[in-house]
Amino acid sequence: MLDPRKLLLLRELARRGTIAAVAEAVTFTPSAVSQQLSALEREAGVPLLERTGRTVTLTPAGHLLVEHAQTVLEQLERASAALAAVRGGPSGPLRIGAFPTATRALLPAALTALTAAHPGLEPMVSEIDPADVSAALRAGELDVALVHEYDFVPPVTDASIETEPLFSEPMYLTDRPSVADARDDSWIMNKPGTLCHTMAIRACQAAGFEPRVRHHIDDFDTILAFAAAGQGVALVPRLAASSPPPGVTLTRLPLSRRTLVAFRRGYGEHPAIRAAVAVLRPSAL
């Protein structure tokens, strides 16, 4: 019989591309990952990996098994959630990932409500960029996470992750009436590789220009402080724009950021996940 833990490693190899990356994600040594995958090949009875020097790729049989592995792992998540529901109310650790503005603006009140309603739960929060959430959920580092999507940035799909929408918020531009009017300004943006940075770049491109980025800063409070100091213009979401510093004017744009809650596919009916979603919705509206 195929071992689900080994199937998970095969799925991660298909996504991450190297045994070293899989090992880092699941906190194994590379040799341990290789041994587990070799054992999976013996269980399957067909070659799953093609090794050329240090490069490892999946064979057609390996790709086929990954497709079935996703179904198997999803059903196991559903079974785990169903058993947890039978045991009673949610309890134990609940590992929550969130992007910084949500951590500051939403989670304090949500955690207060969550622990009051379910004192047996132990929420544990980690700040994380939404671009890294899928990998952290698949690796079991998180149970649930808040992520966001922007206009101009298509959502990244992952067959192993489910999402539920929570709310949408408008975007604001500092000190200019429109993005086009900021063509000649310096810009303050989030770090490259983040969804926020990609959204800002594409918003400028949609207005017909390539922005001149002077500062890369991830904290929106700091971004607004830099804008107040005349260091450039920036796009900020409503959650970060509730109390702008003196001297900064904000113009609401026809752009939005949508916040969703994400979890492993099949795990959404776990009592702890439902409890978390229940307190996040009212605090987000």
TrEMBL record:
The keyword DNA-binding applies. One of its GO terms (molecular function) is DNA binding. The keyword Transcription applies. Residues 2-59 form the HTH lysR-type domain. InterPro entries: LysR_HTH_N (IPR000847), LysR_subst-bd (IPR005119), WH-like_DNA-bd_sf (IPR036388), WH_DNA-bd_sf (IPR036390). GO terms for cellular component: protein-DNA complex. Coiled coil: none annotated. Keywords: DNA-binding, Transcription, Transcription regulation. Pfam families: HTH_1, LysR_substrate. Transmembrane segments: none annotated. Belongs to the LysR transcriptional regulatory family. PANTHER family: LYSR SUBSTRATE-BINDING, TRANSCRIPTIONAL DUAL REGULATOR HCAR-RELATED. This is LysR family transcriptional regulator.
